[in-house]
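Re: that chain you flagged

S.,

Sorry for the slow reply, it's been a week of failed gels. I finally had a moment to sit down with the sequence you sent. For the record, here it is as I used it:
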Amino acid sequence: MRKPLRAFFCAVLLGTVSVIGAVSATSPVSAAEHEYNITPVPFTQVKVPDGFWKPRLDAVQLETIPFSFRKCEETGRISNFAKAGGLEEGKFQGIFFDDSDVYKVIEGAAYVLALKHDAEKNVELDKYLDGVIAKIAAAQEPDGYLYTSRTIYQKAKNKEGQYLPPGGEKRWTNTGGHELYCVGHLYEAAYAHYLATGKRNLLDVALKSADHICATFGVGKSQNWPPGHQEIEIGLAKLYRLTGKKEYLDTAKYFLDIRGKNEGRTYGIYGEYSQDHLPVLEQKEAVGHSVRACYMYTGMADVAALTGDKAYSDAILTIWKDVLERKLYVTGGVGSVPSHEAFGPAFYLPNDTAYCETCAQIATIFWAQRMFLDSGKGEYFDVIDKILYNAMLSGINLEGNRFFYPNVLEVPVGGRERSPWFGCSCCPSNLCRFLASMPGYIYAVKNDAIYVNLFTNSKTELDAEVGGKSAKVTLTQKTNYPWDGKVTVTTETEGRYTLKIRVPDWARAEAVPGENKLYTFIGQNAPNWKIAVNGENIGTSDSGTKLDEGYLTITRDWKAGDAVQLDFPMSVKRVIADERVEADRGKVALQRGPIIFCVEQEDVDTESIFSLLLADETELTAKWEPELLGGVMTLCGEATEFAEKKDSEKGDWTARTVKFRAIPYYAWAHRRADQMTVWLARTREAVRPLSMMNNVKIAVPDFVQTPNYMKDGTIPPNEQERNHPRMHWWPQLGASLWMEYRFPEETEVSAVEIYWFDDRDYGACRVPESWRLLYRDTDGNWLPVQNPSGYGTELYKFNRTTFTPVKTSALRVEIQSQEKWAGGVYEWKVE
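Prediction finished late last night. Pasting the structure tokens below so you have them in one place:
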């Protein structure tokens, strides 16, 4: 069904602005035969004057985007385009997919231009972008091909020392080379820049590239294979909406349809890692690289909406259920396997090695929003709310210039710090474009129905049907969310229309939406909400008021000044996981409103936060602390610290009460780098009591970077887990090396257990060729222990050695690495 005219900039993120025939920035007519059922209100029509999101939106405009452009300059990402275009001399710098970072930062900058907040700065930014775009245009080859690493290599007169991208000198010879991924981000950037400025300088580059891709890829064409990293499908959909050129949509659909099909392809099946193991319509589970997967699911949603083919939306609905009920972290994060940045098996959600890549959280938001636009179901914004305030927001610091790539839920030892940039900096550049456009997720419209999806101080003038006619509706939202559940939505527009207010899952007494709950609240917990209009209650949780897909629907003849008062009382809630999530068994997480909390060692007097037990009956108090971490609500209470009794039987512990403070998870790692956890023990079985190991100091050669991991109390959950934290001696190969434990006082010891790190089949570390154990005598000499039972080097187990008990101030392990190999240790225990 053909949609009516759209307002300019309607849903910039989705690309639902289209024109027929020649591209024109002033002719916003939809050329698509089909579209999403619901239209998001674009961020350009939503002002956020103050409140929780205002400083974050300011930071991305004033700090994150300028900072990211500086980093793109410092690291050669921008000069690569100049070199490829013959404007500068030099070699390619960086990684073969670095072009995409420049495109993503340009997209974010285009959103800043569109907001027109600061005319003087916009002139400077516009001029700067024109300079960068000129370099991009110069780098494009005559037929439209654009990929700087290969072009620089091909143009180099002297190939020696030049960077050679995957696949070598020829185009399209390596499916993992990200040629298609990079131009997908180009298309999104060009779309945003054109709508912000009306200029065609970047758009013309994108269209020339897209025409080249459409001519090159397809059944019976010179190239017949899907992208190794999905993204181009989303970009092509935007160009289709903008131009009405059906080849763009057809090619996006082709890139999806060829996945999992081997017949006639230029290259064979890639497998689960790239979601190429089955045809997309037959895939039932989220597998493989999490960013690639969620970009693909987003592209499938776009193709479903634009073609009207329900098979694509049905397929991703099945996959969504798999993620929601079996693979979602309590923070909203996805991706549990570090070695492949990937989805893991069902219920495999380790906390200390959680990957939860920041890009994956953003991609999940893209996917979830599109699922909402198709269905109108509130569960998708329940998940977006969870990701926004937790898994995504932890990826950037309060100032907007330090970033996490993975977002772990537990740090056993050593602490973590955000980084100013990465060799692979997809996450900082993705944050540039997402945060700059975040207000575009707050409201949406379908005919006369206006959806209020997210709660934050805001004002919008949107297009909707009022009394059966198209009109402007102005709404204002006042709230202190996420710290307070009271929200007032006021209209300035008279007439008959509908407001649909999302009642959050946590206010409905649900830790997550969906049928089969991966997480549940325990303790006193019942739905608790009420909604009034001009002070008169129209719906409450205890009056049998029915919600429509998570929304309370209010249809009436509105008068200017009418106010809807929402009250979602925020109590502290305890969250437990499905028993099948081994990492969370016997543990509890704390939530208030949409915020998940964590405990940092900074906020409790203990040598290890993992020695604490939080009893279910313990009272917890919420406290507003305006001077802490930019102003946060904290949770305060008491826990029991357990410690092993010296010279006693195993399980014989002492106990003492300690006070603790929990902070919002998104704000962790802004102070001292130390232990952190989202999940606290609520049963003794989950406690890791204090032992002599907590006071043991470690000594290793100076070049070793992560020694504390060998006494963090954890080992890999299975043989397939490759990135579990460990200590290693790489890059010292075939060397004689050592490690020491130094006790705070003379200690009697009689056994050690060592779990060796060995990354055979993919790395350079192996179990040692041999090793021995020594103790330090009172004169400071190192002597071999007496009567050792053996020095094992078996894989995937603790190698235990007993010996004649000895009192000592230190133990030393000396190893001889295998020839041409390094070594390492997951865990070293002492008894």
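What I noticed first: Residues 1-13, 16-30 have pLDDT under 50 and may be disordered.

Talk soon,
D.
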